[in-house]
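Sanity check

After download, print the first record. It should look like this:
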Amino acid sequence: MFWIAFVLFLIVSVLLTIVILIQEPKQSGLGDALGGGGGADFASLGGTAGGLHRTTIYLAIAWGVLALLLGLIPR
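Expected structure tokens:
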């Protein structure tokens, strides 16, 4: 059981990294980070950006659950 969870954890880790890297940045730089811009509302994302955002959230939740599971399962 441990090794199945470990392999799933590795797969989810790679997928999460890829999905994060292919997303378009939502800010234009340090000015927006310090309050210099209006910024995009995350709830108003549509199309591909919204799908990638949702996928990132699901993969991050799966990653967290698998990390906890790996800590609880004896080898």
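If your output differs, re-run the checksum step. Summary of this record's structure: The chain is about 70% helix and 0% strand.
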